[in-house]
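Moderator note: this is an archived Q&A kept for reference. The question asked for a predicted structure of one protein chain; the sequence and the answer are reproduced below.
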Amino acid sequence: MDTRKVAAEYRLSHWMHLIQEQQSSGLNIKEFCREKGMSRHVYFYWRRKLRKAACEELSKSGGPSNIVPSGWMQLDLGQQTKTTLDIEVGGCRVTVNEETDPELLKKVCRILRVL
C-alpha cells in the first residue's frame, strides 16, 4: 500500500475518533474544540472529508442508492392511491376517478338532476 494512502487513512481514522468523541461528550462543537485546542474550521473541514469518504465508500460498495430513513416506508409505484370523487344525490351514489369518461359523467349528471 502507498504510504500516502496509509497516512490519509490514518488521518481519517484519527478524525473519525475525534468527531465520535465530540458527539458522545455532551459538549457542543465550540466547547469541544476549545477544550482540544483546535479550530472549529478544522473540525468542520475533517467532518466534511469524512462524510465525503463515507459516501464514496457507499457508492463503491454498491450500497443502496435510494436510502429510505428508518421509520419511513417506501411505496412502490403500484401502491399509489387513485383520487376519487363520490357524488351522492337522492340516495344514488356515483364514484368518479380520472379514468371516468366525461361524456358518461355528463349523462349521469343530467339523469340525477331529473331525479
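Archived answer notes: The mean pLDDT is 82.
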